[in-house]
């Protein structure tokens, strides 16, 4: 049995997937198996994967089942004590597994371990921000209410824990990791390695994290399942926070992507949906309600006025910016 089972799902990324594979096989911790799930690719991905000769690698080839089911298919085949995830367009530093395992060993009660992931813009060649916005160890329930989820490519979970948590929700097209990792956090604490050992590549490809309409749909589906466990664990305040940082943020992002002429009607639709979760959704309704009532252009003016007034109250334009979560 390997110590770590690494899962890489891939779909039509023939030009990128080998970079991710190399960063796994070149790890200083060699006790691993690598499960690559070719999720029905229609490009040259299958031919590229056929060139890999390392005996630690297994390639699974289901029909096109989607990201969550592809990851779950690999989870069903995995035999490692730990499950590590790497997206096919991301990569790890060479000591990633070694240092993640060391962080987990220092906290034996941990059911998972994570490190920050640093963004890298392939077009400009520059490194960007690290995420999540915290390096909290222990109970991650509170930061997860504000979308402080560890990145998939920076996380390892005990296999038995992840199976108990139910794996990735197969009915979610995007943001399935949010629900999966919250369920893991409800089962036990996370260890944290504060070094950014995972790299998230930003490129011209199709990033699920910026598909706001699909994210909105996903979060509403999650709301139907997570309301009870969140209320049970954190009470009304936690549930109101989750609604504000998940559903409301996705609603606003989807509205922002629309032409100006369509924003007001979309805002009213968002308000009606959020009204079903009153009173917990009261704060979540504020921004779309303002757009619905005064219109997007006047709302933009009010927003500029508020920011100007806020800067003045905080000491003028030279005051440091307020830290942003998310």
Structure description:
- The protein has eleven helices and eleven strands.
- Strands 3-2-1-4-9-6-10 form a seven-stranded mixed beta sheet, sandwiched between helices. A four-stranded mixed beta sheet has the order 5-11-7-8.
- By secondary structure, the protein is of the alpha/beta class.
- Helix 8 packs across helix 9.
- 44% of the residues lie in helices and 15% in strands.
- The two termini are 37 Å apart.
- It has helices spanning 17-25, 45-49, 67-77, 96-105, 141-145, 159-165, 176-185, 212-256, 260-275, 286-294, 296-313; strands at 4-10, 32-38, 57-60, 82-85, 91-92, 112-114, 117-121, 126-131, 155-158, 190-192, 198-202.
- Helix 2 links the parallel strand 2 and strand 3.
Helix and strand topology:
Layout: E1 4-10, H1 17-25, E2 32-38, H2 45-49, E3 57-60, H3 67-77, E4 82-85, E5 91-92, H4 96-105, E6 112-114, E7 117-121, E8 126-131, H5 141-145, E9 155-158, H6 159-165, H7 176-185, E10 190-192, E11 198-202, H8 212-256, H9 260-275, H10 286-294, H11 296-313
Parallel strand pairs: 1-2, 1-4, 2-3, 6-10, 7-11
Antiparallel strand pairs: 4-9, 5-11, 6-9, 7-8
Helix pairs in contact: 6-7, 8-9, 9-10, 10-11
Q: Assign an overall shape.
A: globular
Spatial sequence of strands, sheet with the most strands: 3-2-1-4-9-6-10
Can you tell me the CATH class of the largest domain?
Alpha Beta
Which series of helices and strands comes N to C? Answer: EHEHEHEEHEEEHEHHEEHHHH
Helix % is: 40-55%
Q: CATH H level of the largest domain: which superfamily? A: Spore Coat Polysaccharide Biosynthesis Protein SpsA, Chain A
CATH architecture descriptor name of the largest domain = Alpha-Beta Complex
Q: Approximately how much beta-strand content do the residues carry?
A: 15-25%
Uncertain segments are: 317-326
Largest sheet: 7 strands, mixed
Supply Rg: 21 Å
Number of DSSP strand runs: 11
Number of domains: 2
Q: Which fold name corresponds to the CATH topology of the largest domain?
A: Spore Coat Polysaccharide Biosynthesis Protein SpsA, Chain A
């Amino acid at each position: 049995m390997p110590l770590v089972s690494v899962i890489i799902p891939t779909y039509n990324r023939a030009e990128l997937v080998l970079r991710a594979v190399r960063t796994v096989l070149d790890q200083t911790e060699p006790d691993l198996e690598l499960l690559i799930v070719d999720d029905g690719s229609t490009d040259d991905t299958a031919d590229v994967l056929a060139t890999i000769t390392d005996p630690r690698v297994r390639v699974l080839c289901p029909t096109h089942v989607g990201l969550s089911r592809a990851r779950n298919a690999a989870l069903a085949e995995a035999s490692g004590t730990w499950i590590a995830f790497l997206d096919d367009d991301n990569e790890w530093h060479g000591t990633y597994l070694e240092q993640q395992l060391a962080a987990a060993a220092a906290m034996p009660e941990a059911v998972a371990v994570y490190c920050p992931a640093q963004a890298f813009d392939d077009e400009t060649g520059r490194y960007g921000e690290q995420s999540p916005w915290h390096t909290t160890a222990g109970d991650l329930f509170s930061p997860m209410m504000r979308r402080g989820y560890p990145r998939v490519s920076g996380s390892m979970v005990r296999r038995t824990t992840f199976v108990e948590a139910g794996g990735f929700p197969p009915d979610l097209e995007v943001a399935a990791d949010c629900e999966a990792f919250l369920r893991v956090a409800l089962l036990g604490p996370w260890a944290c390695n504060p070094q950014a050992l995972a790299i998230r590549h930003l490129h011209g490809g199709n990033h699920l994290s910026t598909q706001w309409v699909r994210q909105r749909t996903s979060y509403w589906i999650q709301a139907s399942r997570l309301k009870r466990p969140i209320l049970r664990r954190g009470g009304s305040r936690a549930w109101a926070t989750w609604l504000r940082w998940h559903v409301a943020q996705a609603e606003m992002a989807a509205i922002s992507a629309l032409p100006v002429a369509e924003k007001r009607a979309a805002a009213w639709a968002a308000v009606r949906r959020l009204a079903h979760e009153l009173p917990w959704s009261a704060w979540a309704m504020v921004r779309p309600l303002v757009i619905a009532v005064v219109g997007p252009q006047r709302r933009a003016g009010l927003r500029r006025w508020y920011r100007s007034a806020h800067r003045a109250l905080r000491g003028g334009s030279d005051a440091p910016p307020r830290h942003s979560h998310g």
